[in-house]
UniProtKB/TrEMBL annotation:
Keywords assigned by UniProt, alphabetized: Membrane, Transmembrane, Transmembrane helix
Keyword Membrane: yes
Protein name, UniProt field: Antibiotic biosynthesis monooxygenase
Record flagged with keyword Metal-binding: no
Domain of life: Bacteria
Chain ranges passing through the membrane: 223-245, 251-280, 292-312
């Protein structure tokens, strides 16, 4: 079967809510679940993450190479046994809201370390067992925000990909540099051919500096940038474009972009972040009320901006 006719990889998301105090048992369960899922036929990737730092709501995304492989995993005895183990850890009051659906990928409010590992031939079992151990350790580390594990996708790309997420760069660095992780890396070193890692951070990190809390969600960052950038561009069209009309389009565009970036970077984004900080990084207390109020506030500000420029232009 060639690439054009191969069925697309498919996945299922299991949404669960934990009981308070179940963090440590759930961390151990995650490592067992990861170990079992990665050995299943057709396994492609596993993504386990909370809704936000400190949340009891978690999603478990299980991706497989075909609908048939996914169905085999979904109905397997091993998976059923794992979820039976999980049952006492789940919040019975929230059971009605737990479900399983086709996954959707939403940007997480966190910083991610991408680790690519090439395992020595025949050592895959050793690597899986080691991955189970390190998963149990990192799941209990402060700021942990979930892990994605992806098996080699083809004969040409024989490396395992692991995405490790933490709330802040400082918390991620603390885990990456801790003695426990260094000891674990020394244990697995004889069984891997090579590995490398790199950091994935927010595209607007300079405008949303770390404050000891998690970074704002990517969509919130983009929404606030749009709120600030739109009036700058509209004012440039109204007042700057006529002044630059006689210049070459490349020069005029460069000047306009330079002014836009300067104004947005300082002071407009600093003011916007200060004013909307309660929504960008809401506390867990009454979080969803703040989220809804913030979204309505942003929508109202968009409407006000549009109304003003529709009247002026």
């Amino acid at each position: 079967m060639n690439d054009s006719t191969r069925p697309p990889a498919t996945a299922i998301t299991t949404n669960i809510t934990l009981r308070a105090g179940m963090e440590e048992p759930f961390a151990a369960w995650q490592s067992r679940f990861t170990h079992t899922a990665t050995k299943a036929a057709g396994f492609l990737a596993l993504d386990i993450a909370p809704a936000f730092a400190g949340s009891y709501d978690w999603r478990i995304i299980q991706r497989f190479r075909s609908p048939e492989a996914l169905e085999g995993w979904r109905t397997s005895v091993l998976r059923a046994h794992l979820f039976a183990e999980l049952a006492p850890m789940r919040d019975p009051a929230a059971a009605a809201f737990d479900d399983e659906t086709v996954h959707s990928l939403d940007p997480l409010s966190c910083v991610t370390e991408v680790i690519m590992t090439v395992v020595e031939p025949g050592k895959e079992g050793v690597f899986r067992a080691w991955a189970e151990t390190i998963q149990a350790n990192q799941s209990n580390f402060p700021g942990y925000m979930g892990t994605l594990v992806q098996a080699p996708v083809s004969d040409e790309m024989q490396y395992w990909t692991t995405l490790v997420r933490f709330s802040t760069p400082a918390q991620l660095d603390a885990w990456l540099g801790c003695p426990a992780r260094k000891q674990l890396l020394e244990q697995v070193e004889p069984h891997i051919a090579r590995w490398k890692s790199y950091r994935m951070e927010s595209p607007f990190a300079g405008w949303f500096p770390e404050t000891g809390k998690r970074s704002p969600a990517a969509w919130k960052q983009s929404a606030l940038v749009l709120l600030v950038l739109f009036p700058v561009v509209m004012l440039e069209i109204k007042f700057l474009s006529p002044l630059l009309a006689g210049r070459h389009v490349a020069i005029a565009t460069f000047i306009a972009n330079a002014i836009s970036v300067s104004l947005v970077s300082w002071p407009l984004m600093k003011i916007a972040v200060l004013c909307m900080g309660w929504w960008l990084r809401p506390s867990p207390v009454r979080r969803w009320r703040r989220e809804a109020l913030g979204a309505c506030t942003m929508l109202a500000l968009y409407i006000i901006e549009l109304a003003i420029f529709m009247l002026v232009f």
